[in-house]
Every structure is written in C-alpha cells, then in structure tokens.
Amino acid sequence: MATATLLLASRSRFAVAALPDVVARALGRAERSEHAAGERAQLQRHFHVQGASDALDAAGGGAMPAAALTRQLDAGDAAGHVWLRADPAHMVPDMHGARMMGYGDTLRPSHEDAVALLPDLLPVFAGHGLHLDAPVASRWYLRVPDDMTLPVFASPDDVLGDDLFSHLPSGAEGRYWRALLTETQVVLHAHPWNGQRVAQGLSPINSLWFWGAGRLPHSVATPHAQVRSRDALLRALATAAGVQVDGEQSVDALVDLRPLRSLDQLANQAIIPLLQALQRGELHRLVLDFEDGVQFGFQRSQRWRFWKKPRQLHEA
User: Fold this and answer.
1) Of 287, 218, 271, 277, which Cα lies nearest the Cα of 72?
2) Structural contact between residues 202 and 107, judged by C-beta atoms closer than 8 angstroms
3) Residue 55's CB: how many other CB atoms inside 10 A?
4) On the CB side of 113, how many CA atoms lie within 13 Å of its CA?
5) Model pTM score
6) Angstrom distance (rounded) from CA 267 to CA 253
7) Distance CA 222, CA 236 (A)
8) 6, 184, 193, 211 — which has fewest CB within 10 A?
9) Cα separation of the two ends of the chain
C-alpha cells in the first residue's frame, strides 16, 4: 500500500505557533514514536547501507560514507578508493576563534572558482599523497591512500554557525588534518581570486571543510520506491539503491522537505493535501520524520479516535 514519508528538519526549526485545526486533530490521533536524533540517524532510518564500516575512521567506522556516495553520483569513479569531501567554505573570525558561515552550495561557487583556486591547492595535498579535484563546483574531493587512518570528521551542517574549534578532528590523526586545514587556509586567504569574489558581493572561499570519509558501500537498500530531493547525498543514496529520483509523482515516496522552515507552508501545502489523499483512500499511510527523532504516523482508521486531544507540533 502507498506510503508518503516527509523528511523534515528538527521541530525546533519551526515557529512555535498553532497548527490548523485539521492538522492538530490528526496529529493528536497519530502514532507518535521517538528515534535517534541527527541527520545521519534520520537518513539511516530510510537507507540501509552495507559496507559503510569501511569508513576507516579512528572511532572504528560506522559513519555514513557521504564522500564516496556523492563522488559516485558526480563522477562515477568512486569504487576502489577511500574518499573525503573537501568542500569550499567561508570562515569568519570572532573574539573566541572562528565560525563557519557558509560552505558548498551556500557560497554559490562556480566552475571558474575551482579553476582559479585548485592549482594553488594541489601542491599542498600532493605533498601528503592526496589528490584533490572538483567534478562539481560546490563539492570538492580528496582521494585518500587506502592505508591512512582517518579521524572522525564533523558534518558541515553540524558546524555551520557554531564555534569552529569545537568541531575540529581530535587525537593524533586529527592533529594531522588540523595542520593540513591551516595550510589550505593560508593559501586561500592570500589568493587574489577571493578579492574578485568579494567585489562581486560573494563571500570569499577562505577554507575547506573535510568530512564524509569512506569507501563506496557494497549495497544500499530503501523501502521507498521514489526519492524526491535536491540534496546530493540523498540523491546519491537513492541512485545507489536503484530507486527513482524525482520524475513524476509516485507512490511510496520519500519527499525531502528539510530546507522548509515555514510552519504554515508545512501544514497547508504539504500535510493537509496528504491528509485529504489519506481520507480518499489514495494513500495508505503518511509519515512525518523530524530530524530530532520524532515521527508521526497517520492512517485513515485513526479518524475514529475521537477521544484523542489535538496536538501541537512542539508538544512533547
């Protein structure tokens, strides 16, 4: 039977406001469950990745190998290598250190940026036996030697806007990558191309951010027949699982609405039309999956739960 699943940001990212009555009633009657919080845990609820333990990190593996997955999507040559994302980033100093204020797509990088900046960065990495390239302007990659032990790298979404130094890799392996990060920042800070970006009203690319280490998984599986998303990692997971990405609206779809922040849009443009489809029998089940780990499951039979009180989104 057809199931629609909405992948959503943490509930705290939405305004604390009253939901439309029809949504509040349905939410009160829905099945509520709690799961692990965080982006990685949310993705793992929908994709079973086999072979991700080959991430070769110092903590013993288990991280989502985002770099290898998106590398396969971008260039088709990920198999047989260990990959690390080295995305263009913008750091801003403050009185306590520095903060990442943008990375990847948010910086609106162009092919010309990569052409201008990479030649000066390549020798830095080549001296460490690492190969840097940028098949997509917003996603840069390092090919890492197979025998190199890697530390745990933080996802840029966890770092964005936060104190940079609390997210730098730790331990003996982390010291190596912290020094390498400093080398790249020295090169980029002095690069004249960044002056042109600033003149165009763009933030300078004054750093890279390393993350997503691992090998291409042996297999990826998902219960969904279709994934609708603009996110590169989600599209890469769907492609690896062999399911439809975007295209015409399909049943059993996972719909990525994580960028959405408007509670009004979520309720009126997403939830209400799907509740109506549920009542018409066109949909068997609707699931709202929030990044904070809370899930709500809706089914047509719940309309008989008259004793259930309406619920607001932020209620525990």
Assistant:
1) 218
2) yes
3) 25
4) 29
5) 0.89
6) 18
7) 12
8) 193
9) 30
As given in the structure block, the two tokens for residue 23 are 């949504």
Residue with tokens 């509930």: 11
3-class secondary structure for the chain?
CCEEEEEECCHHHCCCCCCCHHHHHHHHHCEEEECCCCHHHHHHCCCEEECHHHHCECCCCCCCCHHHHHHHHHCCCCCCCEEEEEEEEEEEEECCEEEEEEEHHHHCCCHHHHHHHHHHHHHHHHCCCCEEEEEECCEEEEEECCCCCECCCCCHHHHECCEHHHHCCCHHHHHHHHHHHHHHHHHHHCCHHHHHHHHCCCCCCCEEEEEEEECCCCEEECCCCEEECCCHHHHHHHHHHCCEECCCCCCCEEEECCCCCCHHHHHHHHHHHHHHHHHCCCCCEEEEEECCCEEEEEEHHHHHCCCCCCCCCCCC
Largest pairwise CA distance in the chain: 68
Q: At residue 198, what is the residue type? A: V
> pLDDT tens, position by position, for the chain (316 residues)?
688 999 999 999 999 999 999 999 999 999 999 999 998 899 999 999 987 544 444 444 457 899 999 999 999 999 999 999 999 999 999 888 899 999 999 999 999 999 999 999 999 999 899 999 999 999 999 999 999 999 999 999 899 998 899 999 998 899 999 999 999 999 999 999 999 999 999 999 999 999 999 999 999 999 999 999 999 999 999 999 999 898 777 668 999 999 999 999 999 999 999 999 999 988 899 999 999 999 999 998 887 787 789 999 998 6
Q: Give the integer Cα–Cα distance in Å for 51 and 62.
A: 9
